[in-house]
Specification:
This protein has 80 residues and is mainly alpha-helical. The chain has 4 helices and no strands. The protein has helices at residues 9-14, 18-28, 31-37, 47-75. Helix 2 (18-28) crosses helix 4.
Length: 80
C-alpha cells in the first residue's frame, strides 16, 4: 500500500491554476450550479473567468486542507 501525502495549504497555493481547471469545470457544469443558480457552462465562460473560478477552487482546496490539518492536530495534541 502506498503512503498517502496531503499537500500543505502553501503547496496548494503554489500550484498552477491549470492544475485546478478540470475540477473547476466539473463544479461549474454540475447540476446544482447550473440548475439552481442558472450559471453559464464552462465552455461559455471567457478564459479569464475560467482562471478566476480555478483560483477560487485552488483557494478553497488550500483552506480546506489547512482546516483539516488544524482539526487533525487538535486530535493528536498538536502532532498532526
Amino acid at each position: 500500500m502506498a503512503d498517502s501525502y496531503t499537500a500543505t495549504a502553501a503547496e496548494i497555493r503554489s500550484m498552477s491554476l491549470e492544475t485546478f481547471a478540470l475540477q473547476a469545470e466539473d463544479i461549474v457544469n454540475s447540476a446544482p450550479v447550473v440548475g439552481i443558480y442558472g450559471a453559464r457552462e464552462w465552455e461559455e465562460l471567457h478564459e479569464a473567468s475560467q482562471q478566476w473560478i480555478a483560483g477560487i477552487v485552488r483557494e478553497t482546496t488550500a483552506r480546506a486542507t489547512a482546516a483539516s490539518v488544524t482539526l487533525d492536530s487538535t486530535k493528536t495534541g498538536g502532532q498532526g
